[in-house]
Amino acid sequence: MLRAAATVCLLFLSNIFMTWAWYGHLKKFAWTLPVAIGLSWLIALPEYTLQVPANRLGHFQHGGPFTAAQLKILQEAITLVVFIGFAIVILDERPRVQEYIAFGLILIAVMVAMTGRRNNPAPGASGALAPPTVLAPGVGDEDATPESGTGG
Question: How many CA within 13 A on the CB side of residue 64?
Fold first, then answer.
């Protein structure tokens, strides 16, 4: 539970930086596009120093409780929470009812993704189903191969 909470906190903090990097320049009318890009990259650097450890800490192969897909879905929900606050406080934009409904649907998706999880596979295991067995051409079906001479 501690790793899950730390993961969420780090993702939340990283999203504050990323949201500022992506949208903060919209209020800076004097900035040229190259300045906005350069400063946004500098703002995004701390985002990566928080986001990468969050994903490693939270991923099951590193002892965390989440799969990569769950981390991504969780990150998207956190992004929306941070963005809505940013839009209201910094950009002075109020989301429409449709956007709140869309946000609610994404939160439902997070709940769906987090329920019914299997036991985490052992570290190093992918947790995915084994790929189907592919036979070499002609193995097990001699009549269908051109080499057999029967032609099917």
Answer: 20
Q: How many CA atoms within 13 Å lie on the side-chain side of 4?
A: 7
Handedness of CA 109, 111, 116, 117 (dihedral sign): positive
Q: Give the long-range contacts of residues 135-139, CB within 8 A, separation 24 or more.
A: none
With a cut of 50, which residues of the chain have pLDDT below it?
127-136, 139-149, 151-152
Contact 22, 87 (CB under 8 A): no
Q: Which helix (H) or strand (E) holds 1?
A: none
Instruction: Take residue 86 and report the two structure tokens written for it.
Output: 């940013």
Whole-number CA gyration radius for the chain: 24
Q: Which residues 6+ apart lie within 8 Å of 7 measured at CB?
A: 54, 55, 57, 58, 64, 66, 71, 74
CB hemisphere CA count around 52 (13 angstroms): 6
Outline where 2-150 has alpha helix (H): 2-23, 33-58, 68-89, 97-114
**pTM of the predicted model as reported, rounded to 2 decimal places:** 0.68
Polymer length in residues for the chain: 152
Domain ranges, ordered by start, for the chain: 2-120
